[in-house]
Amino acid sequence: MARRRQAVTIKHVAQDAGVSLQTVSRVINNEPNVRPAMKERIQASIDKLGYVPSIAAQRMSGSRSYLILAINDRERTIADWRARQGSDWIDQMLLGGMLKCAEHGYRMIFELVDTHNDHVERELGATIAALQPDGVILTPPHSDNPLIAGLLAKHGIPFARIGSRGTGAGFALTMGDETSAYEATRHLIDLGHSRIGFITGSDEYSLSEWRHQGYVRAMTEAGLDPQTWCAEGDFSYASGAAAARRLLAMADRPTAIIASNDQMTLAALDTATQAGLAVPADLSLVCFDNTPVTRFTNPQLTAVDQPIAATFSRAVELLLDRDAAAPKAPVDVPGELIVRGSTAPPAARPSG
Amino acid sequence: MARRRQAVTIKHVAQDAGVSLQTVSRVINNEPNVRPAMKERIQASIDKLGYVPSIAAQRMSGSRSYLILAINDRERTIADWRARQGSDWIDQMLLGGMLKCAEHGYRMIFELVDTHNDHVERELGATIAALQPDGVILTPPHSDNPLIAGLLAKHGIPFARIGSRGTGAGFALTMGDETSAYEATRHLIDLGHSRIGFITGSDEYSLSEWRHQGYVRAMTEAGLDPQTWCAEGDFSYASGAAAARRLLAMADRPTAIIASNDQMTLAALDTATQAGLAVPADLSLVCFDNTPVTRFTNPQLTAVDQPIAATFSRAVELLLDRDAAAPKAPVDVPGELIVRGSTAPPAARPSG
DNA sequence: GTGAAAGCGCTAACAA
DNA sequence: TTGTTAGCGCTTTCAC
Questions:
Q1: Apex CA A206: angle with CA A203 and CA A209, to 5°?
Q2: Do B130 and B211 fall within a single domain?
Q3: pLDDT above 80 for A1
Q4: Which candidate from B109, B129, B292 shows the least CB-CB separation from A84?
Q5: Inter-chain residue contact A130 with B55, CB threshold 8 Å
Q6: Which of B61, B82, B104 lies at the terminal end of a domain, its last residue?
Q7: Cα–Cα distance between A334 and B14 in angstroms, integer?
Q8: Cα separations (Å) of A253 from A278, A344, B178?
Q9: Can you give the residue ranges of the HTH lacI-type domain (chains A, B) (predicted)?
């Protein structure tokens, strides 16, 4: 208890099994060239003594650190935590990433980094020097930051870029945005809608554009006008409300609206209600991002599920598979449309 | 880039500043016995080279690991993540704990542990051996687990027990449950209620009892009956619904109900609505735990805020303050009553 | 106040 | 297939 040292070290195991340190090390790391009998004997000693390698020592001797670092935007994350609006990005990241790491004996550690900061490099560089992670996961809006990519590449650390299609160092993963937007639009078209509105997200995020593209594709394919009912938003409630007001004031107002995130959908719902429109009877609504709030509105919102957990899980897998080469093309993890109560056939035509 | 090594080590700094490794180490660790001029010169080299100590090496040489480990219940945490109901315990833990750690150059790492498992000790023992954290934070229901406390004490690792009043190794912190329950009850009494219902939580959690005690104290103090309108629940929605049904079926039904968590409050709200009672006109409702969902009901719920972030922040502070002795008595971080739309004077009497 | 030596627990490289 | 040696980057002795 005095000065804290490892209780059971590789030495104890070696001694107990009557072999050299190196052989024990081989067993720990599942390396070849150990006779089964020997391996078994050593494993028995390990179990008996309850030995667990110190990751600090492993890292020190030039091996792996068993740490995966995930980077999130500081400002946005803290704002979400403080707001307590039920945004669960971090939770889903943990659900997918942390659990997958655990399966491989890894830990996921995450840091908040300021993108709009000129010393991102220093900040992140310090973390890397201190932790020496075996892999890094970048999330928007860091995913396409060339400074970060350059730094990571320089250090030779494999990294994943979530929500990116960019090429260059590391590998990219997307969350089915284009396809999901296409499907959400199709869902409305199949229901009989033809005047379908779309509220875009902030163009600081590439996925805003992808979502828009999916909408345009579905509309065009169905011979519908993909421009008239398109309104700009920036992911904020206020921008969503403004966009919805504009859309609903049109002579030829849309009978359905797809909004690029939950806050804007909420805003559209409130705006419609205030305008005396019932959802979904007078207006159908599709929400992007299946966040908790979609379950608490009245009616519950039909939403596009963003596969956050699955994507992080996949990113970790790719990072840890040292044999496979990093994917060249962006890996697309498909999203899913969750149909709830906010979508129905348009009122104007027989709904039966 | 080949075999990954530290880019800038203490050696480089020592060489650059023209001093011994030891002196640099003293500066890094803010130790005495370094002349100011010397310190400045070394600091300049550190800044110039962008040196950051490797925590692996620091830990190796018997110093600190700069890691704080937080332990949460595996089953409950994963269930919450999967449910996506907006439970934000982990987020608030991170907000308070992780940010406070960062202030001190520490990282917070967290693990999910199975309490209802006979090898908790082995599981946690392995994590401790691998990570060698400088401190551990236990959350319910681990906080009062004697196996865990024993293990930690044996290793000489300081630890905090959140949501506990138990004595023994480590130190305890509570989140103002008794006082908050008292205040919530007072709030209703002040509003003019006298038949106030209370739905208890699972007795696997000590805080259920504390909350109940606060209610009893306020009722008794006001000369009201603290027994008649008390119903048992276990934190689940189903149990809350059953309890609410029982309460509302009474001839002398309560005009207000306090439920020991958000799910049970939701259940009470739904039950009341189904019974044709308006909230708050016919029934006032107070929610324990100011989780996101309290903002999404109609009306929004008057709720007791559980100071999760503040408590974790405090726990980290206490863990890292190596000079101060660990607190003897439980540290109570006060909660707060957030008044929203679900409480009002009872209908029976003039409400003006 | 500063420096030199030893060693933490482990693995890479080499030798046997 | 196994063992030996050296060293990772840092902090602890202890000497000056």
A1: 70
A2: no
A3: no
A4: B292
A5: yes
A6: B61
A7: 52
A8: 14, 16, 54
A9: 8-62
Domain ends where: B24, B42, B61? B61
| B301 and B215 both lie in a single domain | yes
Of residues A154, A160, A122, A130, the one with CA closest to residue A142? A160
For A15, the domain range is 10-61
Of all nucleotides, the one whose C1′ comes closest to residue B32's CA is C1
CA-based radius of gyration for chain B? 25
Residues B50 and A122: beta-carbon distance below 8 Å: yes
Q: Which among A332, A197, A206 has a CA at the least distance from the CA of A265?
A: A197
* CATH number of the domain enclosing B26: 1.10.260.40
| Residues B121 and B182 both lie in one domain | no
Do residues B156 and B132 make contact, with C-beta atoms less than 8 angstroms apart?
no
Q: Which residues of A122-147 are buried (b: 16+ CB within 10 A; e: fewer)?
A: ebbbbbbbbbbbbbbbbbbbbbbbee
Rounded Cα distance, A179 and A107, in Å:
32
> From residue B161, how far is each of A320, B3, B19, B142, B199 by CA, in Å?
35, 42, 44, 8, 26
Task: Express each pLDDT in A323-351 by its tens digit.
Answer: 788 899 999 999 999 999 999 999 864 43
How many angstroms separate the CA of residue A194 from the nearest CA in chain B?
31
Q: In this predicted model, what pLDDT tens digit does every residue of A104-145 receive, in sequence order?
A: 999 999 999 998 777 888 899 999 999 999 999 999 999 999
Minimum Cα–Cα distance from B122: chain A residue:
A50
From the CA of B57 to the C1' of D2: give the distance in Å. 29
With beta carbons under 8 A apart, name residues in chain B contacting A265.
Answer: none
Number of domains in chain B: 3
Distances (CA, A) of B216 to A130, A153, B253: 52, 62, 18
The one-letter amino acid code at A242 reads A
Alpha-carbon distances of A64 from A22, A106, A189, A326, A335, rounded to whole Å: 16, 10, 52, 18, 33
* Same structural domain, A206 and A281: yes
Which of chain B's residues have a Cβ under 8 Å away from the Cβ of A99? 78
Reported as half-sphere exposure (CB side, CA atoms, 13 A), residue A312 has a value of: 29
Tell me A294's DSSP state: G
Residue in chain A lying closest to B58 (CA): A56
Question: CB distance B130–A53 less than 8 Å?
Answer: yes
Contact B62 A5 (CB under 8 A): yes
Same domain assignment for residues B225 and B289: yes
- Closest by Cα among B187, B190, B195 to B282: B195
Q: Which residue has the tokens 């299946």?
A: A290
Same domain, A101 and A153: yes
The answer to whether residues B14 and B23 touch, using CB atoms and an 8 Å cutoff, is yes
Rounded distance between C-alpha atoms, residue A124 and residue A150, angstroms: 12
Residues B118 and B83 in one domain: yes
Rounded to an integer, what distance in angstroms lies between the CA atom of residue A111 and that of residue A73? 9
pLDDT at residue A2 greater than cutoff 70: no
B15 with B31, same domain?
yes
> Is 60 exceeded by the pLDDT of residue B35?
yes
Per-residue pLDDT at A349: 46
Cα B179 from Cα B183, distance rounded (Å)? 6
